[in-house]
Amino acid sequence: MIGILGASILGGRGSVPALPSFDLIAPNQPSISDAVLLVEARGTDGSLTVTSRPEILGASILAASPVTVTGGTVPLDWSDRDWTSLPSDTRPNIHFAGRAADVTIDRALPLRPDGARRVAVAVGDLGLSNGDGALDATARALAVDGQPVTLSLLRSRAAPYAERRVIFRGIGADWRPEARSLRFRMRDLSYTLDVPMLGTYGGTGGADGNADLKGKPIPEAWGICRGIAPLALGDGGTQIYQLHARQVQGILAVYVRGAPIAAGTQRASYAALASASTAGGTYDWVITATGSYIRLGSNVDGTVTADVQGDASDGYASTIPAMMRDILTRAGTPYSAAGFANLDAICPGTAGLYLREQVTFAEALTRLAAGGALWWGDDGTGVITGNRVAAPFGNSGLLLDQTVIVADVEPLEPPAIAWRVTAGYRPNWTPLSGADLVSTLTDARRLELTEARRSVVAVDAARRGRNSQALDIKIETLLDNELEAQGVAQNVLALMRPGLGLFRVPCNAFGLGIPLGAQARLVWPRYGLSAGLDVRVVGQTIRGRRADLLVIG
Fold first, then answer.
1. Three-state DSSP state, 478
2. CA gyration radius, the chain
3. Distance of CA 120 to the CA centre of its chain
4. Cα–Cα distance between 394 and 376 in angstroms, integer?
5. Distance CA 10, CA 515 (A)
6. pTM of the predicted structure, to 2 decimals
7. What backbone phi and psi angles, to 5 degrees, belong to 123?
8. N or C: which end of the chain has fewer CB within 10 A?
9. 467 φ/ψ angles, rounded to the nearest 5 degrees
10. H-helix or E-strand containing 97?
11. Beta strand 399-400 with 519-522: parallel, antiparallel or unpaired?
């Protein structure tokens, strides 16, 4: 079954368990005239005393007023029509007050492979009827930002709570009081990743950095990183440099002004490295769970660089999907095991990312996704997934036609066309030039060290004859292998082909069950669609019990 929720798309560390659910996209789907939209949220104020009737905190607080709530969180339960769960339900005897007047959820994939945005954005807005002012105290007393929220659909008022179908799981953003309603804004799980990722130096000396480094980020290397500039710690005049905040897989080479220097001795600890006597013209090193370092045996007269296999604190991650998984694990954010297994097949090549400036977890994931022409984001059920926007190549058995389309299909401005795609690969994180390079280097090595990355090209010159404004675009991958980069360039060229259309397709509840990235067959009497067109879903706007799908094909 294809849908927003199901065991086939969930899994992995901390993933959300699958629920029994009805299939919104089944051909024999039931009538939704008696369907019920459920809203389950949380508010918090640490310790809260309420003197009004229970409904101001959500009717799930089943007690006589006045009500005293402690412990920091309060359940907030509403629906678009009054509904109460059964005594035998997994949440028994919960009344969902019928105050959810309207709901809007917007999801969209990033369509331009060369664009900076690589996140599948999902935002939501819920309108709660409040003409009687019963929810005024709720908005004043409780904060909802960062608190969990789930929207689900029951096929009928007679259905048990256990059969609900999740259509959105995320976090609250804020309240917006209005004259006759209370707006409840929501965001997907990706917003919880907008927090700093890199640790910082304390400036107390030694491995904690000198006073000049206090508050500055500790560098991190992920995957294979070539030409990184390790950070000098200024530890009592020693030539000690930090490569990575934790354990690396290995040090491939160390250079001064582009010339390699010989490896010396691996030390057992930072203290042993700092007290060692390192031979001139060599480097010693130490790899520990709390940092990886090198020490040079001679004072340097130019730029120090290194090639490393990066973070191995939880096993060495050398591909973009593996690095994304490790970062999500570190952030404590659930992800889709099946989604990332698919991403492993899409983007299997060795890659690398080096971070010297502070970034958020979300920014690091975005850089990785951009480095493989991928997207990442919440799949709609509260877990992170990823994929690549690609041209459709089938329909997965899904049919979008007059049986599910509720208004005219709308053609939109077609996607951009490209005739040439240049993909950079094998990034050199510290390009050198002039006096930065020793004179003994070969011309080939000198050229390699001066360039920020190598590049490959995918071309369809015939497109320029058909579309004189076709684009010549460039994408900067993090891939280390030429063939992998060539594959990405060809994929982007295929996506940005002539004749690809973009359409808005207004659907009934059928559209709520189709995830982003799914393929379908679009049939409509207009716009050359009467014979059917294979399309891919790249956007979804939920308005109550209907969904407008954005498709390309």
1. coil
2. 28
3. 7
4. 22
5. 13
6. 0.86
7. -130, 150
8. N
9. -130, 100
10. none
11. parallel
What does the alpha-carbon distance between residue 203 and residue 215 come to, in Å, rounded to a whole number? 7
| Size of the chain in residues | 553
Alpha-carbon gap, residue 256 to 60, rounded angstroms: 67
- Give the residues across from 154 on adjacent strands: 36
Q: Over the stretch 397-438, which tens digit does the pLDDT of each residue have?
A: 889 999 999 999 999 998 899 999 999 999 999 999 988 999
Q: 391-423 as b/e, with b when 16 or more CB fall inside 10 Å?
A: bbeebeebbbeeebbeeebeeeeebbbbbbbbb
Q: Are 479 and 373 in contact (CB under 8 A)?
A: no
Give the SS3 label for residue 363. helix
Provide CB contacts within 8 A for 434, sequence distance 6+: none
Structure tokens at 515: 């995830």
Helices 320-331 and 337-346: crossing angle in degrees, nearest 10, is 150
Q: Mind giving me the DSSP string for 6-39?
A: -GGG--STTPPPP-----TT-TTPPP-TT-EEEE
Is 476's pLDDT higher than 80?
yes
Report strand pairing: 100-108 vs 533-543: antiparallel
In sequence order, the β-bridge partners of residue 546 are 543
Question: CB atoms < 10 A from the CB of 125, how many?
Answer: 15
Looking only at the bridges linking them, the beta strands covering 121-129 and 533-543 are: unpaired
What interhelical angle do 361-370 and 320-331 show, nearest 10? 170
For residue range 10-60, list pLDDT tens digits in order. Answer: 223 222 223 334 456 554 454 556 789 999 999 987 554 444 433 434 433
Question: In the Cβ-directed half-sphere of 49, how many Cα atoms lie within 13 Å?
Answer: 1
**Residue pointed to by tokens 């609900």:** 164
Burial class (CB in 10 A: 0-12, 13-18, 19+), 31: exposed
Pairwise CA distance, residues 125 & 202, whole Å:
42
Distance CA 435, CA 152 (A): 64
